[in-house]
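Lab notes, practical 5.
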Amino acid sequence: MNRFVLDCSVSAAWFLQDETSARATNVFKRLRSEEALVPSLWPVEMANVLAVAERRGRISVADSQRAVELILALPIVIESDGRAILKRLGSVARQHGVSAYDACYLELAQRQGLPLATLDRSLTKAAKRSGIPLLL
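Output from the prediction step:
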């Protein structure tokens, strides 16, 4: 099965109408036949995206709960490298001038040799500089 690294910017766009894009929809459709790999940070980021969207009235509680149920049904594998990743993240963040959060996705794509699906501009630039193929 083909795999790719999924960034929260893409998965958030699936559930926030004002962030929906054809690129995000295409990634969603790929999950019919492919598997997404995400760092252990991703569920926390998604939970935060949904909680903030609820608080700001962008989505209802029911929409947020449906989003969680859908996420749990998708072929998304949460990768955990535990404590070993700490040194690598700092190095990747410094080298590419990105946050440690973005470095999680970049490092995972590098280590696994997988393309990265992101809508984030700084992460896109860092991936291009690193030679990481972009799914979008």
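Observations recorded by the TA: The radius of gyration is 15 Å. The chain is about 55% helix and 10% strand.
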